[in-house]
Amino acid sequence: TMDQINHAYHAPLSVDKETSALLNYADQCYQLSEGMFDITAGVLRKIWHFNGSDALPSTQQIHAMLPLIGWQKISWNTPYIQLPEGMELDLGGLGKVYAVDKVCLLLQQHMHAHSNTPVLVNFGGDLACTGPRVSGAPWEIAVEHWQQDEHVRRTVKLHQGAIATSGDSRRFLLKEGKRYSHILNPKTGVSISGAPHAISVAATNCMQAGMLSTMAMLHGEHAEAFLQLQEADFW
Question: How many alpha carbons lie under 13 Å from residue 158 in its C-beta half-sphere?
Answer without folding.
Answer: 33
